[in-house]
Amino acid sequence: MRKVFQNELAKLEDELVTIARLVEQAISDATAAFKTSDIELAETVADRGSEIEQACNALDETAIDLLARQAPVASDLRLVVTALRISSSFARMSDYALHIANLARHRYPERAIPKGLKKYFVEMGRLDTEIVGRLIVMLREHDPRLLEEIDDVDDQIDELHVRVFEKVLSGRFADDEASIVDATLASRFHERFGDHAVSIAKRVADL
Amino acid sequence: MRKVFQNELAKLEDELVTIARLVEQAISDATAAFKTSDIELAETVADRGSEIEQACNALDETAIDLLARQAPVASDLRLVVTALRISSSFARMSDYALHIANLARHRYPERAIPKGLKKYFVEMGRLDTEIVGRLIVMLREHDPRLLEEIDDVDDQIDELHVRVFEKVLSGRFADDEASIVDATLASRFHERFGDHAVSIAKRVADL
Questions:
Q1: Rounded Cα–Cα distance for residues B20 and B55 (Å)
Q2: Domains of chain A
């Protein structure tokens, strides 16, 4: 029974890693679509979003089925509940990737990325992709020291978020209302993406 | 055993209603603080946020404890897992109330609420408060028909969200960058608040 249970927990872990890889691709594509106003790429982010949602639902079913059949207690129980929560955070991260891609779609054929801010958003996207990469390693290796690294990457995202807002509020960012709205939302979406990554890392570290 | 379990489920439900009442107060206070730039009121929203976080953590512990001791299956198991998810959504709604209150704090002594948009945000706040009120009834009475009403209120919030963005993007909304940023974020926070309420209502309806 114990061995069966361990195999099932390993399956949950595999499913989380698969979801994380999809989220990594989604945020990378969303950043590129936002940068170049690439509508077709933005649409692949929407397709990937549906795929992630299905994968999260499947994982939730696996976890609930496991609770029902095995009735785990103590640390095993917490592990299954944690898997449910991590899947929910990944679903939110996928939503943020989709929101970023949608900014490109809504503003088309104009460029969604405001002039003078392109480099910040490209860097935020790179850090988002990096943070998911480290989460995948953490999910695989259960090394709590990775939490600190993930926290550092999130701090860098937060710094860029503050800088984008400073730029927008400075008045020197002389652009139209649409650019200000897009910059505000895109920056916020990247910041929240990073926050969710930290929240997942904390949950893994607490296991 | 069954009776004990039913009592414990009823306790979970009571805890959810208590959390919902705190969230209702938080969004109502946050809307008022945002409207009048009332710093002291904004700070009570932060205090209430900590209270809600503690209540959500306590509920999560009750639910996990219940899973461990009673090992529920089938619909009872889904009910406990649903309670965990609802508590997580209420925690997010509390965060959105706090974000709205923080817009008032960050912009003080300026008014955070952009000129010409005050009525929209007051109405969004009223609808947010109304939507939580209906959620509380739904949690108590388990009447799935309330989902439709909650969906309607959310549609009204979404309409106001679109109107705020139209106003901001129209160019007739001749205000400074800070007002555009605040309007964009506040409107988004209200919209997300409503979305979480619908997501909770769907979960209750599915039970």
A1: 10
A2: 2-206 (1.20.58.220)
